[in-house]
């Protein structure tokens, strides 16, 4: 089988990569790390994404937005597949994505790496630096926030609250 | 009125991209995933097991969202709702897995009903068809009860999911691997609150001790071997409840010690000995609290068996 011309694949990829996350719109799906692959099946675009959290209601919107972006790029009947494995990790958020989060006042997640499931009762993770003033004198308000992937924090130096994308 | 003048024009189902709110237009959460049952696994047994796991998380989620507008602080309301949302997401995947592994496990509805399999399983089964453990059915009488119950549930659920990462069913293993990360946060949240409440005021400590005393008897069921798990165990599809319980027990002990709480009287032996124990949730026998919970949750869907949401 001879593959489709690379420019066509590149066009589909570019269209898919331009779609932004509905809840964190400063991030593209590529920067968020949920876009797993963009391929062509003959001239039909096949995009595979992975959910962040199992209950994340934004997944439906992501799929719809991908279909619209691909249709606009000349792929009218794109197929959007879901994959669960390997599970999404915040380590897949790109450097560009981390920069965009920070610029918008959201603290990016720390590296997760080889995670151990120990009870974090006494050894709490270090508090994130304030994305506004850079102070490390911050505290956790809640480990759960307005969206499934964020936690709430407050800065003791500039007194501003801020969100953080929590490690997963 | 032209479309751009109507703020609601994008909200109606004009095409397949309806998006008037998050939470509508759901499709099969396993779409595009190879859902074939691996060789050596019985589809019916796998489906029954996934239903058991999904029933636990669905009923727990339903209890938790009852805290919306009632939690002591907005942050805790958001936290409990987030935990519920994670558990609901896990339920959707587990129900979809059950439906794919054994389509006959899904309740039949009138021809042409658009209600998807996961919703049929959630809304169109009677209490006796549910297989959740009694722990998830209990009403939360105060915040301490909610925290104690969530802690025990999350500690157990996490141990169970960790074991299921090794299931020979690749779909169940993948769902478990995702869910482990989420429930890790649930357990930490509840454990920290438990320690905080136990070390807080006299009143918060009293309520915490009361909550532990009233919740602990229900943990006995968690460590018991049950027919559904046992049927799938030899083929490597399920986790052994007794092994899961011993991992759970270590975490419970650790947190109770950190909270300065003595071992509750009548703490479950957790030796898998079900002799003398009455039928439990895994047998379809439930507490008095499940039926009203399901009635409230199912009422709207049942009134519209051909409804599209
Ligand atoms: Zn600051």
From TrEMBL, chain A:
<dbReference type="InterPro" id="IPR052339">
    <property type="entry name" value="Fe-S_Maturation_MIP18"/>
</dbReference>
<dbReference type="Pfam" id="PF23451">
    <property type="entry name" value="Zn_ribbon_PaaD"/>
</dbReference>
<feature type="domain" description="PaaD zinc beta ribbon">
    <location>
        <begin position="123"/>
        <end position="166"/>
    </location>
</feature>
<dbReference type="InterPro" id="IPR002744">
    <property type="entry name" value="MIP18-like"/>
</dbReference>
<dbReference type="Pfam" id="PF01883">
    <property type="entry name" value="FeS_assembly_P"/>
</dbReference>
<feature type="domain" description="MIP18 family-like">
    <location>
        <begin position="13"/>
        <end position="72"/>
    </location>
</feature>
<dbReference type="InterPro" id="IPR011883">
    <property type="entry name" value="PaaD-like"/>
</dbReference>
<keyword id="KW-0560">Oxidoreductase</keyword>
<dbReference type="InterPro" id="IPR056572">
    <property type="entry name" value="Zn_ribbon_PaaD"/>
</dbReference>
<dbReference type="InterPro" id="IPR034904">
    <property type="entry name" value="FSCA_dom_sf"/>
</dbReference>
<dbReference type="GO" id="GO:0097266">
    <property type="term" value="F:phenylacetyl-CoA 1,2-epoxidase activity"/>
</dbReference>
<protein>
    <submittedName>
        <fullName>1,2-phenylacetyl-CoA epoxidase, subunit D</fullName>
        <ecNumber>1.14.13.149</ecNumber>
    </submittedName>
</protein>
């Amino acid at each position: 089988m001879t593959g489709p011309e690379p420019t066509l694949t590149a066009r589909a990829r570019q269209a898919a990569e331009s779609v932004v996350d509905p809840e964190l719109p400063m991030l593209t799906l590529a920067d968020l790390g949920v876009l797993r692959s963009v391929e062509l099946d003959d001239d039909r675009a096949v995009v595979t994404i992975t959910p962040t959290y199992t209950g994340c209601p934004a997944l439906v919107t992501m799929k719809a937005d991908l279909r619209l972006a691909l249709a606009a790029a000349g792929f009218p009947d794109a197929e959007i597949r879901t994959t669960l494995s390997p599970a999404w990790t915040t380590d897949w958020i790109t450097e560009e994505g981390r920069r965009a989060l920070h610029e918008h006042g959201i603290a990016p997640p720390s590296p997760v790496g080889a995670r151990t499931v120990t009870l974090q009762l006494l050894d709490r993770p270090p508090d994130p630096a304030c994305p506004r003033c850079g102070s490390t004198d911050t505290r956790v308000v809640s480990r759960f926030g307005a969206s499934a992937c964020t936690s709430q924090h407050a800065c003791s130096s500039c007194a501003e609250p801020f969100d953080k994308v929590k490690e997963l | 009125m032209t479309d751009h003048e109507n703020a609601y024009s994008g909200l109606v189902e004009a095409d397949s991209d309806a998006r008037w709110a998050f939470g509508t237009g759901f499709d099969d959460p396993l779409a595009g995933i190879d859902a074939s049952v691996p060789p050596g696994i019985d589809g019916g047994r796998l489906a029954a097991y996934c239903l058991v796991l999904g029933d636990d998380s669905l009923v727990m989620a339903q209890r938790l969202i009852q805290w919306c507008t009632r939690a002591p602080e907005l942050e805790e309301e958001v936290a409990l709702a987030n935990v519920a949302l994670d558990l609901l997401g896990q339920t959707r995947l587990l129900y979809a897995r059950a439906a794919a592994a054994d389509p006959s496990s899904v309740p039949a509805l009138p021809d042409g009903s658009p209600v998807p399999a996961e919703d049929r399983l959630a809304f169109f089964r009677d209490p006796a068809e549910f297989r959740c453990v009694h722990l998830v059915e209990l009403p939360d009488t105060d915040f301490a009860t909610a925290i104690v119950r969530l802690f025990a549930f999350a500690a157990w659920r996490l141990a169970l999911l960790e074991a299921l990462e090794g299931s020979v069913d690749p779909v169940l293993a993948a769902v478990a691997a995702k869910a482990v990360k989420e429930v890790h946060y649930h357990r930490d949240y509840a454990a920290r609150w438990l320690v905080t409440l136990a070390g807080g005021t006299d009143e918060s400590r009293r309520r915490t001790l009361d909550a532990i005393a009233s919740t602990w008897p229900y943990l006995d069921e968690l460590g018991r071997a049950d027919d559904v798990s046992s049927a799938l165990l030899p083929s490597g599809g399920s986790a052994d409840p007794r092994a899961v319980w011993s991992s759970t027990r270590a975490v419970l002990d650790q947190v109770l010690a950190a909270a300065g709480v003595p071992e509750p009287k009548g703490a479950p032996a957790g030796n898998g000995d079900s002799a003398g124990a009455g039928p439990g949730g895994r047998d379809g026998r439930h507490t008095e609290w499940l039926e009203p919970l399901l009635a409230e949750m199912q009422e709207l869907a049942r009134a519209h068996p051909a409804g599209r949401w």
